[in-house]
Design brief:
Blueprint (H helix, E strand, L loop, with lengths): L2 E2 L3 H20 L5 E7 L3 H17 L2 E7 L5 H13 L5 E4 L9 H7 L11 H9 L8 H12 L8 E5 L6 H10 L3 E5 L6 H5 L4 E4 L17 E4 L3 E2 L5 E2 L4 H4 L5 E2 L6 H18 L3
Parallel strand pairs: 1-11, 2-3, 2-4, 5-6, 5-7, 7-8, 8-11
Antiparallel strand pairs: 9-10
The structure holds NADP nicotinamide-adenine-dinucleotide phosphate.
NADP nicotinamide-adenine-dinucleotide phosphate binds next to helix 10.
Length: about 280
Amino acid sequence: MSEILYGKPVTENIRADIRKRAERLRKNRIAPKLAILRSGARRDDVAYENRVFKICDSIGISHITCQVDRDVTQRQLELELSQLNSDRSVHGILVFRPLPDHIDDELICSIMSVDKDIDCMNPNNLKNLFTGQKAGFAPCTPEAVIALLDHYGYNLDGANVVIVNRSLVVGKPLSMLFLRRNATVTVCHSHTRNLADITRNADILVTGIGKPGFFGPEYVSENTTVIDVGINFDENGKMTGDVDFDKVIKKAAAVSPVPGGVGGITSTILLRHLVESAERYI
Ligand code: NAP
């Protein structure tokens, strides 16, 4: 039987660390504060926000929501973000995306304060990641994948990593984080030929295609560790990953479950970034 890579012990460790750091900040008269900028009240956004705020409350991080209507004008949204940028009590900002269709996403990303950009939406922070500069925070989901593997003691140096996703929030930044750790990285996508032949050779396979149960046992070997980043919902609202968990767990070396794997770590990484951002003021 393969190992199941649960996210819970990872989040517990990180939260214990950031709780201490938040306390140290408060002793230095700095109250770490998260701001969320949300357009409208999409169910997923509100649910995520509530989960993050619950963790904030348990750690001692204060928070505010700046909510605008979905029909907000470009100018108004820019103004709201600029105000959060210049609000000295706010140390990190999360903007829920996708933004409404009529909003210029690129422009909003470029307005985000580089220092308060805790989920790497400003192109300057992305550039830092791709050019190997230490400044700025990496996107939270890729960092959560690395945190999971680190927690379970994986040596990434020289590891053969295959990522099936090339988006700017998952695959591309994650490939940079793996390269920083001297892994050998292959990035696959919907045009990749003979996908299973490539993934079967992976020491570590990261899946993030948004197709429930797509990856069966034919995509892995006995030596493959599978990190499932996919989040899908079936017709009953049940969350599933991209991996056919019940079958793959019988063959692969290790698998991270959905729910219970990478997803929960992501929001904790966001708050670690927030605390790090506030620590600059000590
Ligand atoms: P996305 O932008 O739609 O990217 C999906 C990627 O999968 C693309 O690179 C696409 O290839 C590739 N793909 C789709 N079908 C494929 C196939 N049959 N074979 C090989 N590659 C295929 O989505 P995303 O925003 O990156 O999110 C991906 C998944 O991760 C979603 O399920 C999302 O919910 C989840 N997610 C999870 C977290 C978390 O915290 N756990 C965070 C963000 C996203 P092309 O580039 O060729 O189209």
